[in-house]
């Protein structure tokens, strides 16, 4: 399948052309400085535990219709990733949760380069209720229950990562040495001296 090329500039509307930009042929505007760097999407996913069970939702749409996955979704343009995952968990399952640590990143280069960031989250409240659009079932399940469920392979991998990680992972830096408005900063926990 041939990949579509940007024909008009997203900034000024002028025609685009293919030209060498930093050693790579890219689509660039003929009138202004806009360069189309590629197509990217950033997704987030949650691993929420309650009473030694993990929150899963059953996909009601493709891709993966009928498979059980961890709740998640795509970030909005002006939304911090930690706000995205809290929103997505609530929207898809009715469960309130808060981010405790970042546990995994998946990099999937393809026509739309997809990066997926997985968070471990602490259960705050609410009972699992599916949104009825993206997901048609939601609940907390033990590893034993999941063994007989059609759980997506990537979700199984994420659960293994979260349950078997030996350190604190990346946590949100609540007190960075320099305040940077609008940034979501994550770091390896500070070592006490």
Major sheet attributes: 7 strands, mixed
Number of helices: 3
Q: Which structural class best describes the helix and strand composition? A: alpha+beta
Q: Outline, from the CA principal axes?
A: globular
**Secondary-structure element sequence?**
EEEEEEEHEEEHHEE
- Gap between N and C termini: 57 Å
Query: How large is the radius of gyration?
Result: 20 Å
Helicity, in percent?
Answer: 10-25%
- Beta-strand segment tally: 12
Note down, in words, how this protein is organized.
This protein has helices spanning 81-93, 143-146, 153-164, and strands spanning 16-21, 24-29, 35-36, 40-50, 53-59, 68-69, 72-74, 96-108, 113-125, 135-141, 171-172, 186-187. The protein has 193 residues and is α+β, with helices and mostly antiparallel strands. The mean pLDDT is 91. β2 and β3 (35-36) form a beta hairpin.
Topology of this structure?
Blueprint: E1 16-21, E2 24-29, E3 35-36, E4 40-50, E5 53-59, E6 68-69, E7 72-74, H1 81-93, E8 96-108, E9 113-125, E10 135-141, H2 143-146, H3 153-164, E11 171-172, E12 186-187
Parallel strand pairs: 4-9
Antiparallel strand pairs: 1-2, 2-3, 4-5, 4-7, 5-6, 5-10, 8-9, 11-12
């Amino acid at each position: 399948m041939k990949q579509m090329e940007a024909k008009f500039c997203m900034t000024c509307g002028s025609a685009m052309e293919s030209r060498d930009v930093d050693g790579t042929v890219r689509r660039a505007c003929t009138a202004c400085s806009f360069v189309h760097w590629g197509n990217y999407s950033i997704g987030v996913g949650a691993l929420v535990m309650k009473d030694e069970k993990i929150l899963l939702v059953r996909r009601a749409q493709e891709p993966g219709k009928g498979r059980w996955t961890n709740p998640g979704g795509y970030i909005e343009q002006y939304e911090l990733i930690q706000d995205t995952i809290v929103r997505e968990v609530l929207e898809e399952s009715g469960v309130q949760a808060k981010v405790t640590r970042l546990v995994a990143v998946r990099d999937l280069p393809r026509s739309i380069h997809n990066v997926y960031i997985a968070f471990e989250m602490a259960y705050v409240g609410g009972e699992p209720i599916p949104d009825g659009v993206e997901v048609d079932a939601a609940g907390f399940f033990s590893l034993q229950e999941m063994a007989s469920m059609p759980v997506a392979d990537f979700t199984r991998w994420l659960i293994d990562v979260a349950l078997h990680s030996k350190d604190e992972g990346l946590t949100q830096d609540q007190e960075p040495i320099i305040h940077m408005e609008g940034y979501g900063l994550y770091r390896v926990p500070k070592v006490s001296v």
